[in-house]
Amino acid sequence: MSTEYTVTETLDVKGESCPMPVVKTKGAIDDLSEGDVLEVLATDSGSVSDIAGWAEATDSVELLGQEEDADVFKHYVRRTA
Amino acid sequence: MSTDTSERSSTEAAAERTDAFDDETAAELAAEIDALREEVADLRDESGDDETSMVIVATKGTLDMAYPPLILASTAAAFGWNVTVFHTFWGLDILHEEKSKNLKLSAVGNPSMPVPNAVAALPGMDSMATRMMNRKIADNGTATIEELIDVSLDQGVDLQACQMTIELMGYDEDDFYDGVTTGVGAATALQRMTDADVQLLV
């Protein structure tokens, strides 16, 4: 499955488990500007629910989509403000 | 004509009286609404409703019990919450730079251990259980306690070391990670808990 998002930055947290995917996603999104899209690559299956929940509860971010590709979970998060 | 006038004037007079009454009531109600609005705004400011906050009291210093407060704290900080972890009694070891790298798991009284308590009580079993757990942590890509402390502090989590317990355990303030708050006690923890949305004892 190919992505239709223009990715600004990619964060690789493959091999890391809870809470690091969420904590590092937050850190990476803080370094981006409004409109930028962060791609997060994770192998932790809990990251699907965790990153979605985090994006839902966090102002100024929007979850564009989540995909699974060969045991890697890809999350696309846009900074909206 | 005169009858008309007097009739009109009495109707008008009645209408005026009603208007006057309505105006007065409306003014009173408007004033009351303004006062309530002000009060609500003040209360909102006081409660700081725009920011969620959490206080965790960490009392245990075993390897398994060191994780939950730090995982919750670092995740809550990623949610933008204002987080305080008050470490007391053995929870202090989590913030102790040297001891935190050497936290132990108890084999005795741990139903998840693959050996009976009688065997778990033998010398060396705690070390073995700890080694097993540390290997699992590394294999699973789970962060170390030190890494969780680093990310928590980086994100502005207030990691507090209870002053009374520091003295009770004979620790020195320099024994703790840089960025750990010392010189605080139960009153500080309680005051933060009063204002917090989430309070947990671990």
UniProtKB/TrEMBL annotation, chain A:
UniProt cross-references to InterPro entries, sorted A to Z: TusA-like (IPR001455), TusA-like_sf (IPR036868)
**Where is each UPF0033 domain found?**
11-35
- Which family would the database say this protein is a member of? Belongs to the sulfur carrier protein TusA family.
Q: What is this protein called?
A: Sulfurtransferase TusA family protein
What is the native source organism of this protein?
Halomarina ordinaria
TrEMBL record, chain B:
Q: Please give the InterPro entries that the UniProt record associates with this protein.
A: DsrE2-like, DsrEFH-like
Pfam families in the record: DrsE_2 (PF13686)
- The signal peptide stretch is none
UniProt lists compositionally biased (Basic and acidic residues) regions at 1-20
Gene3D superfamilies reported in the protein's UniProt record: DsrEFH-like (3.40.1260.10)
- Annotated region Disordered: the residues are 1-23
Note the PANTHER family from the entry. CONSERVED WITHIN P. AEROPHILUM, PEROXIREDOXIN FAMILY PROTEIN
Report what the protein is called: DsrE/DsrF/DrsH-like family protein
**Taxonomic source organism:** Halomarina ordinaria
